[in-house]
Specification:
Largest sheet: 2 strands, antiparallel
Structural class: mainly alpha
Radius of gyration: 21 Å
CATH superfamily of the largest domain: Transposase IS200-like
Number of strands: 2
Strand order of the largest sheet: 1-2
Shape: globular
CATH class of the largest domain: Alpha Beta
Distance between the termini: 15 Å
Number of domains: 2
CATH topology of the largest domain: Alpha-Beta Plaits
């Protein structure tokens, strides 16, 4: 259920998932957020999952103890260190002895040990290992993660045919490009999208409203509260309309 909720909110918020590891009482994700909406994404995931757990097990109140901790990846070394930390978390916690044996992680798909799910991006992997087919890059990454010090081992790889400084520049191009996009102010994006008056015009037939609300939310990035204010409806009504329509798309 957690994975299902994450995948739905990735689509809704336009967030790109690079890595995920679900632990017993917390989770880790490596993400890129082209629209600078990390808080909205994490808030939606946590609130939906908390509601699911509370309903299923008869709990009440908060599920998560505290606010999530965001860490901005600003350079090439941080990118690789972050991935290693996320994937090695189950081993460090003593849950498994081999990284590939942990079920609740995207590592196996990343390493090519199982099919890649639709919502997982491996673009970063081919940036780490340039000029390689994806399957070879996956194998190389899997081998790297068996090393005692993966980051040190990566920059010592001579088989890439490039010097360490060149490798750093290649990885930095991925990180820097995504940082630049993520820092773009939300208002710049709003200049390029249709207005709510255009997406949800007066007189829109009631049967067509759910699809229009879904498009405004997913394709154009408007928040539920903004849509509700435009339609002069309660936000809970709009949220239910959106969720019901999203359920029909599966």
């Amino acid at each position: 259920m957690f994975w299902r909720i994450v995948c739905e909110e990735l689509t809704t918020h336009g967030v790109v998932l690079c890595a995920l590891c679900l632990m017993g009482n917390h989770f880790h994700m490596v993400l890129t957020t082209p629209y600078g909406n990390l808080a909205d994404f994490v808030g939606a995931v946590e609130s939906r999952y908390a509601a699911y757990v509370n309903e299923r097990y008869g709990y009440v109140g908060h599920l998560f103890q505290g606010r999530y901790v965001p860490v901005t990846i600003e350079d090439d070394v941080q990118l690789l260190m972050g991935l290693c930390y996320v994937f090695l978390n189950p081993v460090s916690a003593g849950l498994v002895t081999r990284i590939e044996d942990y079920e609740w992680s995207t590592y196996r798909a990343t390493a090519g040990l199982q099919p890649t799910p639709r919502h997982l991006s491996l673009e970063w992997l081919q940036t780490l290992f340039p000029d390689m087919p994806l399957i070879n890059a996956q194998r190389r990454f899997h081998g790297l993660m068996q090393e005692a010090k993966p980051v040190v081992a990566y920059f010592g790889l001579q088989e890439l045919g490039v010097d360490p400084d060149a490798a750093r520049r290649v990885i930095r191009s991925y990180t820097a490009d995504n940082l630049q996009v993520g820092k773009m102010p939300r208002r710049y994006r709003s200049v390029l999208r249709s207005s709510l008056a255009e997406l949800l015009p007066n007189g829109l037939p009631r049967p067509a409203l759910p699809a229009a609300v879904y498009a405004a939310r997913v394709e154009h990035g408007y928040r539920v509260i903004e849509i509700a204010q435009h339609l002069r409806m309660h936000r809970v009504t709009v949220s239910k309309m959106f969720c019901d329509y999203r359920r029909l798309q599966k």
